[in-house]
Write a structure and sequence with these properties.
heterodimer, A: 466 residues, globular, B: 467 residues, eleven-stranded mixed beta sheet, ten-stranded mixed beta sheet
Chain lengths: 466, 467
């Protein structure tokens, strides 16, 4: 028996929900068609949206049976959320350049669906880098854009929520780095979201040509756009679709610090070509509910990925983080490290899967998941898994631990005259430092340190008040 | 490389048995409410047991087939004979056992083993305990060791108090199946403060094509008591699939110590789907020592629920998956009380296209403070047509838990083989020695005779693979 759920009715919101029930109702065929029509999209793109919608409809929220007991979307309440259809600024390219901050190769800043700033450094422009919205790409470079997007090859086709974003995105960013272009200064991609009762669905496509080498900083934070005073939650669904050519190298650093009412759905997938290297440094701090998935596909021989992720959770935040690393080529390397610190009643589900295909001779793969539960109400779940069809590997291992603050470390610091609260802070922030140290911009490093410290201090105050 | 290897034939056939027994009573193939009623009536069971079976049957019918592990849909429940009685009454002495059955046991070496260190034997031949002896001294100190069917008659209060409390029929589809049609299995009761001096030992066997085996073992160890129970299995090889769905329930009351050792070597056509669970009360220790080398598919995760303060769980799980086999095994430690400890060690070997899967759970529930837990999983793959999976679930809901987990997967190191060969071993012997060393964490926990038998088994498996 199923109860008809009215999207606006309060009964729908208070009704008892199963953990895997979707927390929104806006996704339907009509919306996919409206997005295509409103934006004058070509037929292939409309069909692309409809194909994704069909997949979305047929899939379960979690198709991997290993993880079905560990999904919980009940913290999200987006039944009144409306997606953006006609985007405020659809077409913007770095040709309409605004100046970029010193020390960066390019910047695109978006607030909700609108572009507030976009530009490239002189050097980046001279080397033929492209930075633009999907709207601009469609107008300027439709054939190449179609090849990149059609079929959704850089999104997990069995992931319902990835198919949601593929069907209903309203804003997109495209960054293309030509062959051989090497830039030390990072590109900055800044998304602001958080308008109550709005759902912002976005895609980001990044391609590096042969031997290209760049860094990308992704800032995800609260919207500065003035909003009506309601307490509705907000949805941000974003992809990062990465195509790394042979011998390319990409460093991605991300700080997610959305507001407390944000529901965050992230899908990041990289196809890593021969000899190419990908580095992730991901920090998860904000949001009410974060469901993130990273797919590393080590397709080329000698390709490698290093992924370092930290979570700092407090209050009732839930971080549901999955990473899939698939070794396909020969002599590939995967090195993945996740660390979580939990305060109050925060929860993490850390799910990591390493798959070594029969073709992947000489693999070196390691996955580590480490947690620090600092309150009795926290919960940390770690599911580090291995599926191995090729034993001829340099290493295939995972390791995991959960423990309180190490008393001997605490004792040592206190014996040096550091007060207990300070000492605890040092130990916790030190535990998370490996990701901080990988931020490619000094400003970003300092900002992340500041955010972590502020969150720690707020947690202490909360504990003192309780 | 291959040319230097010794050509050794697979000798496992010699260790498989099938005797033509005249079955005195059996149910029709397939399972219905009527089958369950027939089994219960045949055993002249009390009504509460019939109701227990029927409740389980209803659940079995409604419960969908698990899909998180593959191949279970190949089981044809309609082809299975759910109850078969090989002889009319429970035998009290070895002399009374029918000759044909005795001959089979002779080949398995039971009488010898008994002479050496058996405290008691409950040998299961198809669906009923036919032979069963408890040494006089055990009876004197009040230890009960008999078939569960017999226990239902002689000790109905203890059986009724505990059966289905550790593994309820609703726990999973195969626990429901077992609860509906169970027959045989061991019942062990150790009174307060009694230490059983020698391991209690039972051989379990399946005989007869498509005979289901649904034994139900219940072990109750009172306060401060101590017992070691050992089971080992062999079975005849048949072309069609047999089903073995057992339930083992262990109650370790405060201060007790229980060790349960299994060497599972079903023939490679058996589906072995077992629910094994223990409740460990305050200051008790429960140990599962579990090895799986046989069967076509084994699904088994010996579990310990640490319910009382200072309880300890120790699980060693070993699996060898050869051609056509899938060992989906592991362990679970569920911490429900403060100051509890658990250790899980898993070792698996996959070869000749076999698949070894470790699946386990470590859970620390709210209120279980000051827990120390560790999980270690190592897998060895002997060739690149085999597969190894590791799926550990770690769920920590307390802030002062100390938990560590490590897992590695690899192949036999060429350097080690080369070193041993330089010392005069053949490649086959070298690999065999390395595999035995890899599994030693398990072997060293066995009584000596078993350790020898287990190493022989591993050697046989290795030779089979290299022939």
């Amino acid at each position: 028996m199923s109860l008809a759920r009215s999207p606006r009715a309060t009964t729908a919101r208070t009704a008892r929900r199963a953990p895997a029930d979707l927390p929104f109702v806006f996704a339907d065929r009509g919306l996919a068609q409206a997005l295509a029509a409103e934006r004058d999209e070509p037929a292939w793109l409309r069909d692309e949206r409809l194909a994704a919608f069909t997949a979305f409809e047929s899939l379960a929220v979690e198709t991997n049976q290993l993880y079905t007991p560990y999904i919980d979307l009940r913290a999200a309440d987006l039944f009144t959320a409306r997606p953006y259809v006609r985007t405020a600024i659809a077409s913007a390219t770095s040709a309409d350049a605004s100046p970029v901050p010193a020390g960066t190769s390019g910047l695109i800043e978006l607030d909700e669906d609108g572009v507030t700033s976009i530009g490239l450094s002189e050097v980046a422009r001279a080397r033929g880098v492209t930075l633009e919205t999907f709207g601009a790409a469609l107008a300027r470079d439709p054939a190449a854009f179609r090849l990149e997007l059609e079929g959704g090859a850089l999104l997990p086709s069995t992931d319902k929520l990835a198919m949601l974003t593929r069907a209903f995105w309203s804003q997109g960013v495209r960054l293309l780095i030509p062959d051989g272009v090497s830039l030390d200064e990072p590109f900055v991609l800044r998304w602001a979201a958080g308008a109550p009762d709005r759902a912002l669905l976005t895609r980001t496509f990044v391609r590096l040509g042969r031997g290209a080498r760049v860094a990308l900083v992704e800032d995800l934070g609260p919207s500065r756009r003035p909003t009506a005073a309601t307490d509705g939650q907000s949805m941000f669904a974003g992809t990062l679709e990465i195509d790394l050519g042979p011998d390319a190298e990409l460093r991605v650093a991300s700080i997610q610090d959305f507001g407390a009412s944000q529901v965050v759905l992230q899908h990041r997938q990289a196809a890593i070509g021969a000899g190419a290297n990908l580095h992730w440094a991901l920090a998860q701090l904000g949001g009410r509910l974060v469901r993130s998935r990273v797919d590393n596909r080590l397709e080329g021989d000698r390709s490698s990925v290093e992924q370092v992720e930290i979570v700092f959770g407090a209050e009732e935040q839930l971080f549901d983080l999955t990473s899939y690393t698939r070794h396909v080529g020969r002599d590939t390397t995967g090195n993945l490290l996740s660390k979580g610190v939990l305060l109050d009643a925060a929860r993490t589900y850390m799910k990591g899967m390493i798959t070594i295909d029969k073709t992947a001779v000489g693999t070196d793969s390691f996955l580590g998941e480490f947690g620090m539960n600092l309150s009795k109400k926290t919960r940390s779940v770690a599911i580090p898994s291995l599926e191995i069809d090729q034993p001829d590997c340099r290493r295939a291992a995972h390791s995991s631990s959960v423990g309180p603050i190490d008393e001997t470390q605490l004792f040592y610091l206190e014996s040096r005259g550091i007060p207990p609260d300070e000492a605890r802070k040092f130990i916790v922030l030190g535990f998370l430092e490996p990701v901080v140290a990988r931020m490619p911009l000094e400003d970003e490093r300092e900002r992340l340190r500041g955010l972590l410290e502020a969150k720690w201090n707020a947690g202490l105050e909360g504990a003192a008040a309780a | 490389m291959t040319a230097t290897r010794e050509i050794v034939t697979d000798r496992r056939e010699e260790f498989a048995f099938h005797d033509d027994i005249v079955y005195l009573a059996e149910t029709k193939r397939g399972l219905s409410r009527q089958t369950v009623e027939e089994i219960s009536a045949f055993k002249k069971e009390p009504d509460w047991m019939l109701q227990f079976r029927l409740r389980a049957y209803e659940h079995f019918v409604q419960r969908p087939m698990p899909t998180w592990t593959d191949g279970l849909d190949r089981i044809d429940f309609d082809k299975i004979v759910y109850y078969r009685k090989p002889s009319d009454r429970e035998e009290k002495s070895w002399d009374d056992v029918p000759d044909q059955i005795k001959a089979t046991f002779e080949r398995l070496g039971i009488p010898e083993a008994e002479r050496k260190f058996l405290a008691g034997v409950g040998a299961q031949y198809d669906s009923e305990v036919v032979y069963h002896s408890v040494k006089e001294e055990l009876t004197k100190i009040g230890v009960v060791f008999m078939g569960t069917d017999q226990a239902l008659i002689e000790y109905p209060d203890i059986v009724k108090k505990y059966i289905g409390t550790i593994v309820p029929p609703e726990d999973n589809k195969f626990a429901a199946l077992n609860s509906a049609v169970w027959s045989g299995g061991s019942f062990v009761y150790v009174p307060k403060g009694v230490e059983v001096p020698l391991p209690l030992q039972a051989y379990f066997r399946i005989n007869g094509e498509n005979t289901g085996q649904f034994e139900r073992t219940l072990i109750v160890v009172e306060e401060g008591a101590k017992v070691h129970y050992i089971e080992g299995c062999t079975a005849p090889i048949y072309a069609t699939d047999s089903l073995h769905a057992a339930v083992v329930e262990v109650v370790a009351l405060p201060g007790s110590k229980v060790r349960y050792t299994t060497i599972q070597n079903w023939s490679n056509d058996v589906y072995n789907l077992v629910t094994k669970r223990a409740h460990a009360y305050a200051n008790s220790t429960v140990e599962w020592i579990d090895a799986n080398t046989g069967s076509r598919k084994t699904v088994k995760y010996p579990s310990i629920y640490l319910r009382g303060e200072n309880a300890t769980a120790d699980i060693i799980s070993v699996a060898v998956a050869g051609k056509g086999q899938h060992q989906d095994t592991g362990a679970k430690a569920i911490h429900l009380a403060p100051n509890t400890k658990s250790r899980i060690v898993s070792k698996s070997v996959s070869k000749d296209g076999g698949r070894a899967t470790y699946r386990g759970q470590l859970k620390v529930s709210p209120g279980a403070t000051n827990v120390v837990a560790s999980v270690r999983c190592d897998a060895l793959m002997l060739d690149d047509i085999s597969r190894s999976d590791t799926y550990p679930y770690i769920d920590i809901q307390e802030d002062d838990t100390t938990m560590t987990h490590e897992a590695t997967v690899g192949k036999i190191s060429a350097e080690q083989v080369f070193y041993l060969m330089s010392r005069g071993l053949t490649e086959n012997e070298a690999q065999n020695l390395i595999v035995q060393g890899f599994l030693e964490v398990f072997t060293k926990e066995l009584p000596m005779e078993y350790a020898i038998e287990f190493n022989r088994l591993v050697k046989l498996e290795m030779e089979g693979s290299l022939g």
